[in-house]
Amino acid sequence: MITENNMSDNNFKIEKAKARKLRQSQWWKQKIESGVCHYCGGSFPDDALTMDHIVPISRGGKSTKGNLVPACKKCNSNKKYYTPAEIILKEKLDQDVYF
Questions:
Q1: Whole-number Å distance between alpha carbons of 20 and 35
Q2: How far apart are CA 95 and CA 49, in angstroms?
Q3: Burial of 18 from C-beta contacts in 10 A (0-12 / 13-18 / 19+)
Q4: Is the pLDDT assigned to residue 62 strictly greater than 80?
Q5: CATH number of the domain within which 41 lies
Q6: Shortest CA distance to 69 belongs to which of 36, 25, 97?
Q7: Can you give the pTM of this predicted structure?
Q8: In terms of Cα–Cα distance, which of 85, 68, 66 is closest to 16?
């Protein structure tokens, strides 16, 4: 019997595999070549940038070019599983937000 949890786990694995494949692509190499973090705008060496899902996989995001951006490790860690709207709310309210 396939449960919602199994489907979620399977979807997560599929999206992570897509992201790994895109990480090897010329498209991604060009993205990180600029050395700019999508969130803070800071300059970093290529190997200091991580791949971030703007809408996290855990929140329904996909591993597509429109949802993947380079992020410095600090910004990626701070973003966690939040969506862009939740990050704005979190900053405006100066506290964690939960939905």
A1: 19
A2: 27
A3: middle
A4: yes
A5: 1.10.30.50
A6: 36
A7: 0.83
A8: 68
pLDDT tier, 84 (very low <50, low <70, confident <90, very high otherwise) = confident
Q: Reduced to 3 states, what is the DSSP secondary structure of residue 22?
A: helix
CB within 8 A of 7, min separation 6: which ones? none
Six token digits for residue 78 = 């701070």
Q: Which two tokens stand for residue 41?
A: 């705008």
CA distance readout (Å), 15 to 8, 18, 91: 10, 5, 29
Structurally, the chain folds into a number of domains equal to 1
The better pLDDT of the pair 85, 14 is held by 14
Q: Per the domain annotation, does 88 fall within a domain?
A: yes
Contact assessment for residue 71 and residue 79, using Cβ atoms and an 8 Å cutoff: yes
